[in-house]
Amino acid sequence: MSEKVRCLIIGSGPAGYTAAIYASRANLSPVLYEGIQPGGQLTTTTEVENFPGYPEGITGTELMEDLKKQAEKYGADIRTGIVTAADLKASPKKITVDGKTVIEADTVIISTGATAKYLGLPDEAKYAGMGVSACATCDGFFYRKKVVAVVGGGDTACEEAIYLSGLASKVYLIVRKPFMRASKVMQDRVEKNEKIEILYNTNTLGLFGENGVEGAHLIRHKGEANEEKFDIAIDGFFLAIGHKPNTDIFAGQLDLDEVGYIKTVPNLTSTNIPGVFAAGDVADPIFRQAITAAGSGCKAAIEAERYLSE
Ligand code: NDP
Q1: Domain ends where: 239, 273, 295?
Q2: Ligand 1 atom nearest to 159, measured from its CA
Q3: CATH at residue 173
């Protein structure tokens, strides 16, 4: 089965939906495939307090539902499906969805976002679904009145620790450096939270437990004179150490940086392939905010429209 479209948008985070709003209002009749996580990463967060226009804050899920409705209102065709292959150098570009449906597209906007990273410990795989998680909002419910640990020192780690403190009896925050990189306001909230104990200069060596996570082996001041190994008893182990851009299926075609982020022309969303644009976290190693993603989605749709009219 094959279908021809003028503008295909891959991914349904703030970048994808904003591109869909602009592309549909420009009469490009965009088709958007939602991907593995409809609504993107914001659907795994709790309250979004920094998206302009919501003085009282809004939940990530509600924000994404509103963006989707807004895109549909102007005619965007939003579909469930995962892009499994892409031939971006073909003309028109050929995108395969769910391994079977081929879409031919004059322009493609890639807004596939990024995925949570893991430490790479064998125990993370061993205890997957049995105490290890990279999404506090998704799995926090299972740890009511239990003890959990969150790894990371960024805004995500702070946000997850605060969220979990509302459910769990105690939260360890495992930070590998002697300081956090999170914004000051988030650090303050974590430090003032009586249920959160911050373990600075600490790394995780492994996890232990019979039928699920019962604790973690930790090391403080690794490689220094005062190095110290110790264990903590926990029921849940949450990763919040950043993300990897979802670009594997485009490797070898699009120019990527050393981490895998799509390289775009400075100030634009154009990639090395004419008619292919990248918006949101997939091309943004620096800001990674919902509002910057939405802004770049807008730019991508405007660039796609200009490309088509040239
Ligand atoms: P960041 O990249 O900002 O932080 C990742 C954290 O994980 C750092 O503290 C890093 O440590 C640590 N880390 C990385 N690898 C390891 C490892 N192998 N072992 C132990 N620790 C590790 O990612 P975030 O997901 O926190 O944030 C991404 C972006 O999203 C940021 O720009 C952030 O500001 C933004 N954000 C904003 C929110 C908000 O405003 N409400 C909420 C959530 C995110 P180190 O510092 O040592 O490198």
Answers
A1: 239
A2: 42
A3: 3.50.50.60
pLDDT at 274 (0 to 100): 98
Please give the distance, rounded to the nearest whole angstrom, from the Cα atom of residue 298 to the centre of ligand 1.
26
Residue of 77, 87, 106, 135 marked catalytic = 135
Is 135 a catalytic site residue?
yes
- Mean pLDDT over residues 228-235, rounded? 98
Q: Quote the pLDDT of residue 48.
A: 83
Handedness of CA 256, 116, 217, 170 (dihedral sign): positive
- How many whole angstroms separate alpha carbon 120 and alpha carbon 12? 28
C-beta 281 within 6 A of ligand 1:
no
With cut-offs at 50, 70 and 90, classify the pLDDT of residue 214.
very high
Pocket test for ligand 1, best of 241, 243, 282 (most atoms within 8 A of CB): 241
User: Which of 207, 239, 271 lies at the terminal end of a domain, its last residue?
Assistant: 239
113 lines ligand 1 (CB under 6 A): no
Same domain for 197 and 108: no
* 42 and 69 belong to one structural domain: yes
Q: Which amino acid is at 216?
A: A
Token pair for residue 257? 């940086």
Predicted pLDDT at 287: 84
Active site annotation includes 138? yes
Q: What letter does residue 43 receive in the DSSP assignment?
A: G
Digit-coded pLDDT (tens) for 175-209: 999 999 999 999 999 999 999 999 999 999 999 99
Fill in the amino acid letter for 144. Answer: R
Q: Are residues 75 and 129 in the same domain?
A: no
- Split into its structural domains, the chain has a count of 2
What range defines the domain where residue 232 resides?
Answer: 118-239
Rounded CA-CA distance 243/246 in Å is 9
Does the Cβ of 153 fall within 6 Å of ligand 1?
Answer: yes
Residue 98 CA to ligand 1 center (angstroms) comes to 32
173 shares a domain with 98: no
Q: Which pair of tokens denotes residue 284?
A: 């943004």
137 shares its domain with 209: yes
